[in-house]
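Proteins fold reproducibly. Look at a sample protein:
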Amino acid sequence: DPIIFVLWVFTAASILLWGRGVFCGWLCPFGALQELLNELARKIRIPQYELPFVVHERLWAIKYIVLLVLFGISLESMMLAEKAAEVEPFKTAITLKFDRQWWFVLYAVVLLLVNLFTRKVYCRYICPLGAALAIPSKFRLFDWLKRRKECGNPCQLCAKECEIQAIHPDGRINGNECHYCLDCQMTYHNDNKCPPLINKRKKRGKKAADPQLIPAVEVSDA
């Protein structure tokens, strides 16, 4: 299929240039479905929950374990690996549109229900494809996401706003987990929101408001 070929060529190129975030954040249909449902949940004020970062960081390992298990199974039997790959709900939710056996549907629906309370749980912790894309992402050519020395210490705004918790408390963006929503970059350039920029603007305002001192001139009696 030419469309599939072009899609995967683009995905490979984007991983080489920017990492997994382009596919996971902008191209994956199941990821988009989760995004839409979570946005709807927020609009109707369903409470949102986030795990402590120390727990969240350790749960990243699950998707790599799933990937390794699938790889090990594939070495033994491709037929069995194909069945095990149903851990990916993509086929159920997107390809077959939930028209299959009830246990597959239940699995996909449970993931989507959990996603109503915490954004993209499957993508963050379970997705073996995301793990597979993250591995070559370590060799990406460019790091386009800008940071300031104040990011992380003292400023935690972007870390708190990152909805998939891809920003470490010290301000570093984890390129293997980032989905390139670019919210942090919008904050980075917004001098009405970014605390370091706000502080700089205030300092400039104070300097401009200070009256200019007129140097005194000593006049001697003639």
Remarks:
- The mean pLDDT is 90.
- The first helix runs from residue 2 to 17.
- The chain has two domains: 1-142, 143-209.
